[in-house]
């Protein structure tokens, strides 16, 4: 039957503008799926690394020894490890030079850890704005292609004396494909954005809790030091 048209047939029969809309939507969908797969791997790895490091941190080993181990691979740190490295490094530096004023030591240490926390969260949020953009605009891009295609179908229909449904149906069908492609691009992007945002929020809370607990340990060490 002539009604059995494939998506490829509908694409080939569409007007130039509708084809451009479909190609844009296809490109955005492919890019968003690549980002979804990459972000999923990154966030899963970040969660695993944070769990492993905190298990080691709370195992009771000496913090100086842990710092030496972390420092040996300082170029490949992330998450809780990076916060720990920045905080302990700044604490040791300030404690040597300004040990008589523990308040200043703790203020500088907290500032260093907050900077690291901000950078880590920013790194985790990479690509999320793009997914949010894809999820919000692709339905409208697809709708634009549909409106344009239907408009042209009815203009062509008005040019004939005897109009039938068979004459206008293919044009409407190929136009509606643009809307379908817009939804196909938007739905996974929105779902992934919401899922990743929740994961980033959970990791951020985990980093903040670790930072506060680590600050408490350093606070006790700073104020326990003998004052001359």
TrEMBL record:
It is found in: Cell inner membrane; Cell membrane. Keywords: Cell cycle, Cell division, Cell inner membrane, Cell membrane, Membrane, Transmembrane, Transmembrane helix. InterPro entries: ExbB/TolQ_transport (IPR050790), MotA_ExbB_proton_chnl (IPR002898), Tol-Pal_TolQ (IPR014163). Pfam families: MotA_ExbB. One of its GO terms (biological process) is protein import. The keyword Lyase does not apply. It comes from the Bacteria. Its main location: membrane. It is a multi-pass membrane protein. The chain crosses the membrane at residues 16-37, 172-193. Belongs to the ExbB/TolQ family. Part of the Tol-Pal system, which plays a role in outer membrane invagination during cell division and is important for maintaining outer membrane integrity. NCBIfam families: tolQ. The Tol-Pal system is composed of five core proteins: the inner membrane proteins TolA, TolQ and TolR, the periplasmic protein TolB and the outer membrane protein Pal. They form a network linking the inner and outer membranes and the peptidoglycan layer. This is Tol-Pal system protein TolQ. It comes from Grimontia sedimenti. The lineage of its organism: Bacteria, Pseudomonadati, Pseudomonadota, Gammaproteobacteria, Vibrionales.
């Amino acid at each position: 039957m002539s009604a059995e048209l494939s998506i490829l047939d509908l694409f080939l029969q569409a007007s130039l503008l509708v084809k451009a809309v479909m190609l844009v939507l296809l490109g955005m969908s492919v890019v968003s799926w690549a980002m979804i797969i990459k972000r999923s791997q990154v966030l899963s790895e970040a969660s695993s690394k944070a769990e492993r490091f905190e298990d080691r941190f709370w195992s009771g080993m000496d913090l100086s020894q842990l710092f030496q181990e972390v420092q040996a691979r300082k170029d490949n740190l992330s998450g809780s490890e990076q916060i720990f490295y920045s905080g302990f490094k700044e604490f040791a530096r300030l404690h040597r030079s300004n040990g008589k004023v523990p308040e200043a030591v703790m203020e500088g240490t907290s500032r260093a850890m907050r900077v690291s926390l901000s950078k880590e969260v920013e790194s985790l949020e990479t690509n999320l704005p793009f997914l949010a953009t894809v999820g919000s605009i692709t339905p409208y891009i697809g709708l634009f292609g549909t409106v344009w295609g239907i408009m042209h179908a009815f203009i062509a229909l008005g040019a004939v004396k005897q109009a039938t449904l068979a004459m206008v149906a293919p044009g409407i069908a190929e136009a509606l494909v643009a809307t379908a492609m817009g939804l196909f691009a938007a739905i996974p992007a929105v779902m992934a954005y919401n899922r990743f945002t929740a994961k980033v929020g959970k990791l951020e809370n985990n980093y903040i809790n670790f930072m506060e607990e680590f600050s408490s340990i350093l606070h006790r060490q700073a104020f326990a030091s003998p004052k001359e």
